Amino acid sequence: MNERTIRVLEYEKIKEILKKHATSRLGKEFVEELVPIKEYNEAKHRLMETTEAVSLIIQKGSVPIGPIYDVERYMKIAEIGSYLYPGQLLEVGDTLRTARILKNFIKTTESEDFSPLQSLVSNISTYKNIEERIDQAIISEDELSDNASPTLRNIRRQIENKNTAVRNKLNSMINSSRMQKVLQDAIITIRQDRFVVPVKAENKKDVPGLVHDQSSSGATLFIEPMAIVEMNNELKELRLKEKAEIEKILREISSQLGEVSENIKINQEILAKIDFIFAKAKLSISMKGIEPQLNNNGYIRIKNGRHPLIKADEVVPTNIWLGDKFNTLVITGPNTGGKTVTLKTLGLMVLMTQSGLHIPADYGTEISIFNTIYADIGDEQSIEQSLSTFSSHMTNIVEILKNVSDKDLVILDELGSGTDPTEGAALAMAILTHLYDKGVKTVATTHYSELKQFALAKEGIENASVEFDVETLSPTYRLLIGIPGKSNALEISRRLGLSEEIINKSREFITSEDIEFEEIISTIENNRKTAEEERDEAIKLRLQVQKLKEDYEEKYKRLQQQKNREIKTAKEEARKILKESKEKADEIIKELRNISKDVGRERNKRIEELRKKMKGSIEDLHEPVNFDEDISVSEPPKSLNIGDTVKVLNINQKGEVLTQPNQNGELTVQVGIMKINVNLSNVRLIKERKTSDKNTNIGNIMKTKTQNIKKEIDLRGQTLEEASIELDKYLDDAYLAKLEQVIIIHGKGTGALRKGIKNFLRGHAHVKAFREGIYGEGGSGVTIVDLK
After folding, report:
1. Burial class (CB in 10 A: 0-12, 13-18, 19+), 274
2. 293: which residues sit within 8 A by CB, 6+ positions away?
């Protein structure tokens, strides 16, 4: 790809943003090597990778990309039979773990759409046994665990015991009255990995042993007493054994890695590429990008494309198409109108697409693959080469014309500027004609009005312009294809206060053909604006109708659901009544059969009882349906107050009014734990009778709790489980009694009960805050709790 194009289109800035989304140094290296490619299939494959990674992030959330280290050098060390240090093994272990977790993460997706990523992770080799061995053996970058091997554990236990024995021996020596007279300090220290004691230099003969060091002043000698020399020798031997065992363990793990080193190198390369792919996906999500449709025939259609380097709240989307009915697009318009941004947006989106990156545009965008993109944008004046702006541009254009082919895209900014307008316009038309005849896709911007007429007359070349609002004297940055740009110079001058006399005088110097041409453009522009306004109004009305239709269908659906629920409830009630009636009838029949065994008065009495029972059952069946006496079913309430209880008809539930109805009759009702918005026509007022404390025991319970609850609870001597149960009940009672502060007595002891109680209090619903007692309150033996 042309290096100048890469620079002027600011492609490197996109790569810098992409690099920030990579998590590893190896992934960032992939970004640094990224360049646009011209192979269609490869570009398509790269875009698919990005799309699949985006889908995976959306489906499953953040990707578990852990540490990825460059372990290739470590593998070479393992291959030659040497051993790796603990810190190096930790990096290898982290990389192996990342490979295994990523492989499981991508393989567990049920969709078959992730084939490129699936193909990548299928080549990852996992070695959980080596991971676990490294985790088991190594604690930090310079320390092995006692669990690395039974031998190491045994050696370290012996070292610990020997250390204790040496210290005990020395302690007995330095605490003796004889030794205290000759010691500088009654302490034990270490010199050259051996235990020594600090002896006054003048008392050297009183402590037989080996001198290992002396103080800077020479007043103190650090002597290893003869009594512990042998013990120190044994300790030294144990430390040598420990070092040998550590080296043995490191060699064993390194040997395992050396056997699979080639696979681990492959893992590293795959992990770096996966990191790079997910970096592309994160970039796409951050700029709301999409995968453009790809073609190889030079056709471009960008729908609402947004320049990725302009802030989202400032960028104006643009629509560009090229390569179908015309191959050359000539954009005219005033300065600062957005022509250059439009060119850069087009060029950068083609570069991003050919790099496998998503672009910030709408679905339906289609981008072609080009062999090379040539761009001549900006002021390239060179002081060193003594070239003017025109000369600099022409030098670049000459180079483009030498190498361009029909498979390339050419972007030219301010074509022909910097020289005499007549010659510049003629030169611009000649260059555009040359590029058109070669079949090159070209987009150019210009100020020359001659090029507007040229584009109108030349088949295959199309006009475009950037819209300018004369009312506000500012550009809208919208690209209008098919409409040549209008100069607006006279109109802008009038609005800025230039007299009508001067404006009319200036018109005399303009040819009638130019005036007619500008008037035609103005008429086209006005007709376009009118058509757009009418289109927008039609869309607005259509959306309103669609919204009304959806609201009606939703209400109808709710009514049908309510109707079905009521029918279902009625059927269930009828089934229940029939079942009860059948059971009663069966019972009566059974009783009648047993009456035949009775005689006389007793039988008549039993028959009368059964007759009354049957009559009662029949009356129950004919009992009319009673509606709630407290609800009006005829009409909505005329007024509602906050706190009133209402019934919401469409869900057949009671609720409490939270807001008064607005001018449209909309209000908010609390139904259970939900807050719902309803219309006044959909509620009925319920005059509920308040349940007094006389009908419930709540008042009595509250009174009892308030009278009997103490402001402190003693949990000493209890287990944490017993204390937690008792404390939970006590806090509930204290909360009901409206106590503001209570004291928990747990004692000091080992501190286990105190710690457990504090952990319990942190998650309790009634606890506002708690603290340890101060002097006079019980100190650390109590905890003071503030209740909500």
Report:
1. buried
2. 364, 365, 366, 367
From the list 354, 352, 356, 348, the residue with the least C-alpha distance to 375 is 348
Degrees, nearest 5: CA angle 49-54-58: 150
CB within 8 Å of 505: residues ≥ 6 apart: none
Helix, strand, coil percentages (3-state) for the chain, rounded to 5, are 55, 15, 30
* CA angle at 167 for the pair 166 and 169, rounded to the nearest 5°: 65
Please give the CATH number for the structural domain made up of 626-689. 2.30.30.30
- Residue 624 phi/psi, 5-degree rounding, is -65, 155
- 222 by Cβ neighbours in 10 Å (0-12 / 13-18 / 19+) ranks as buried
3-state secondary structure of 497: coil
User: Which residues make beta-bridge pairs with 300?
Assistant: 322
Tell me: is residue 335 an annotated ligand-binding position.
yes
CA dist 247 and 149 (Å) reads: 12
- Asked if residue 337 belongs to a known ligand binding site, the reply is yes
CATH number of 293-509: 3.40.50.300
In degrees and rounded to multiples of 5, residue 571 shows phi and psi of: -65, -40
Report the pLDDT value the prediction gives residue 287, as an integer from 0 to 100.
Answer: 92
Statement: residue 622 has pLDDT above 50? no
User: Is 600 one of the annotated binding-site residues?
Assistant: no
Of the CA atoms within 13 Å of residue 282, those in its CB half-sphere come to 18
Q: What is the CATH number of domain 3-127+260-286?
A: 1.10.1420.10
Architecture category of domain 148-253 in CATH? Orthogonal Bundle (1.10)
Q: What pLDDT score was predicted for residue 620?
A: 54
Mean pLDDT, range 368-377, rounded to an integer: 92
Tens of pLDDT, residue by residue over 649-678, are 877 788 888 888 888 888 888 887 678 888
The CATH number given to 698-787 is 3.30.1370.110
Instruction: List alpha helices for 287-338, DSSP H.
Output: none
The pLDDT, as a whole number, for residue 692 is 44
Give dist(CA 266, CA 262) in Å, integer. 6
338 labelled ligand-binding: yes
Q: Is 292 annotated as a binding residue?
A: no
333 is in an annotated binding site: yes
